[in-house]
Amino acid sequence: MIKAQSLLTLSKLLCILLISSLSGLVLAKPIILSEHETKPVELGPHYQLLVDHNDSLTIDDILKPTNQVLFAKLNNPSANLGFRKQTHWFKVDVSNKSPLPLKQLLEFNFPLLDHIGIYVTNTASKRIIARYDAGDSKAFTQRLVNHANFIFPLTLPAHSDLSLYFKIKSTGSLSANAHLWQAELFPEQNQRHYILFLLYAGLLIGLMAYHSQLFLLFKQSSYIYFNLFAASLLLSIGAANGIWYQYLWPMKPEWHQLSLPVGLALSGLFANLLTKSIFNTANNDPSLNRMLNFLAVPFILILILMPFVSTLYTLPILYVLISLFVLMTILASVLLAISGQRAAITYLLGWLVLMATGIVLIANYLNYLSQPTWLFEFIIIAAMIQAVVHAAALAQQLITLSLSHQEKQQNAALSDSQMFYALKESERQLLNRLKDHSDSLAEAEQTVQAQQEALKQQATHDLITGLPNQTLIKEQIKVLLTRCTREKQKLAILVFEIENLAEVTEEYSPQICDHLLINMTKTLHEKLRHGDLLGRLNENEFILVVESENDRLEHEKVANRIRKSFSHRLFVDGYSIQAIVNIGSALFPDNGESLETLVSVANKSMGTNTNSKDS
Questions:
Q1: Do strands 87-96 and 160-169 pair parallel, antiparallel, or not at all (unpaired)?
Q2: CA 327, 331, 333 angle in degrees (round to 5)?
Q3: Burial class of residue 231, CB neighbours in 10 A (0-12, 13-18, 19+)
Q4: C-alpha dihedral, 506 to 510 to 512 to 514, nearest 10°
Q5: Which helix (H) or strand (E) covers residue 536, if one does?
Q6: Do the beta carbons of residue 359 and residue 368 sit within 8 Å?
């Protein structure tokens, strides 16, 4: 009996070894990482998957050989798994062959995952090197990196083979694709997405302000329904991308999880009302009006039941309802356009753009597009086009209604002799209304331009000091160097750093540190000459360009004035703080002819400030 049990145990071990060896032949090879990567590394095509149906496995269980052999290659490069309530474990092997530790940023592209567990293990020893716990069920303020997506900083040891395990569970759609970024590459991509979303938000806000004015003038309900529909779309898109959770309600994860289905349900409901109002279905097409009323009921029921029903069920239902509504609206627009309603053609174009966006999202969901990097930009641009086209449809409706109303009044009440004067009066009123419309549109355009200028200011200037940021100051200095080369003039580059900025932040607070920088910037502007160019290079370094006057460089005098200005303690919000400033200089063209060389020389020549630290 004992011998039989031993043979059975031995056979099980042999089976495990056989399965493990065979699975090693088909599973993805490790990703070889390098510090020279210029593009993010997509992890989805390399995933191995294990489904934990009972939500009972821990990382220690997963690392056991009996569970390791259960991982299978995921034949879904974008890792879009749809609506699933089970816990999913993803595994991907990476290798750092370089002699130095490699710092990476791990980004999950989908910001609506409820629970994420990250485990970094040594492949050979199975030792856990790092672990993180995140998800949108936690307050946003608990995140390591302030970003709408889930970002985790990783340090991969030199000459190491590692296994990354991701434990993911979500009540909504489960999209687990992730990328590894070089830390210096990520901010550029991040800034582009935020600027594009701000442009979209600015456009919608401008259109909503414009239509609010039109509603006050003409009392047409279509303008209110358009504004409500636009606000609901803005809520939905911002919630789907995690932007509202980052900036508006970071301490309310429960509301964040409801904001997307609430936004979608409200979008469907107000789009329904907008369609009925634009086409006047109650009078022009009673059958279509009844169908739209019937389709509005599920949206209202979902809004009522949403706090009590999981998004695992409400989101798929909403997607189906919205798809049915879009198809019905497109069909109705085609029929009404054929019957002669000009506004229906423009309205149809807006919904065709929205349908094209839905087709692209479905294609991405079914892995036909393999998670394109342009998907976010496409969605935002399509949403902007849809908003503008629907606004144009409202304008056409206004013109049609105005002309129709005037024609009925004229035919009913005016005689031949009165018609001439009535036409004159109508012409005058129409011109006045068109003038009012033009003024309203001009105000809306000014609002959008002001928002664009604010975005441009944020992109080129430091948010704290208002000085030109690293990008802008380098461009300005390069223009100066080109001019000085052409005119054979000299100039000086002064680089000065605040040596104890980190200590000020640690001892007081980031806000006190920001106020210190603002006070120092004001002091610098008071002490500098007219025409001196000042900018901020990084967190604790500033750069100053001193041009020659009467063929003489006075950069040493400028440097001495700066040292003298900061030799005494500064009073910031009731605190007495000593800023320790080190200054280095370089001359063009004596010390170099490129900006990089001059900055390097200035940094090397930087002396140690002897100011005492604040007490």
A1: antiparallel
A2: 115
A3: middle
A4: 130
A5: strand 533-536
A6: no
Enclosing H/E stretch for 59: helix 59-62
| Rounded-to-integer distance, Cα 444 and Cα 431, Å | 20
**One-letter identity of residue 474:** K
C-alpha neighbours within 13 Å on the C-beta side of residue 606: 22
Residue 227 CB neighbour total at 10 angstroms: 20
Residue whose entry in the numeric block shows the structure tokens 């001193």: 546
Alpha helices in 172-285 (DSSP H): 186-218, 221-240, 243-247, 253-279, 281-284
Q: How far is CA 297 from CA 301, 329, 598, in A?
A: 6, 16, 69
Question: Between vectors from CA 269 to CA 266 and to CA 109, what angle results, nearest 5°?
Answer: 40
Whole-number Å distance between alpha carbons of 267 and 321: 11
Sign of CA dihedral 174, 180, 184, 188: negative
Contact call for residues 464 and 200 (beta carbons, < 8 A): no
DSSP 30: P
Instruction: State how far the Cα of 242 lies from the Cα of 215, in Å rounded to an integer.
Output: 32
DSSP for 300-361, please give it.
HHHHHHGGGS-HHHHHHHHHHHHHHHHHHHHHHHHHHHHTT-HHHHHHHHHHHHHHHHHHHH
3-state secondary structure of 114: coil
CA–CA–CA angle 298, 303, 304 (5° rounding): 100
Q: What angle do CA 212, 237, 232 make, to 5 degrees?
A: 35
Q: Using CB atoms within 10 Å of the CB of residue 534, give its burial: 0 to 12 exposed, 13 to 18 middle, 19+ buried.
A: middle
What is the residue type of 357?
T
Q: How far apart are CA 538 and CA 166, in angstroms?
A: 35
SS (H, E, C) 191-207: HHHHHHHHHHHHHHHHH
3-state secondary structure of 400: helix
Please give the angle made by the CA atoms of 409, 414 and 420, to the nearest 5 degrees: 105
Q: How far apart are CA 272 and CA 228, in angstroms?
A: 11
Q: Mean pLDDT of residues grouped by 10 in the chain (615 residues)?
A: 44 44 52 84 92 93 93 86 89 92 91 93 93 93 90 93 95 86 75 85 93 88 93 92 92 92 94 91 89 93 91 88 90 85 83 83 63 74 88 80 65 60 76 75 72 70 83 84 85 87 87 87 80 83 81 77 84 86 88 86 71 38
Token couple for 20: 């493990």
Residue 392: how many CB atoms within 10 A of its CB? 15
pLDDT value at position 4?
44
Q: Tell me if the pTM is above 0.90.
A: no
Q: Is there a contact between 138 and 253 (Cβ–Cβ < 8 Å)? A: yes
- Provide the 3-class DSSP secondary structure of residue 120: strand
What pLDDT score does 405 carry? 62
Helix or strand or coil: residue 95? strand
**CA angle in degrees (0–180, nearest 5) for 494-497-502:** 170
**Residue 117 in contact with residue 176, Cβ under 8 Å?**
no
Spatial distance between the Cα atoms of 207 and 390, rounded to a whole number of angstroms = 10
Q: Which residues pair with 103 in a beta bridge?
A: 155
3-class DSSP assignment, residue 364? helix
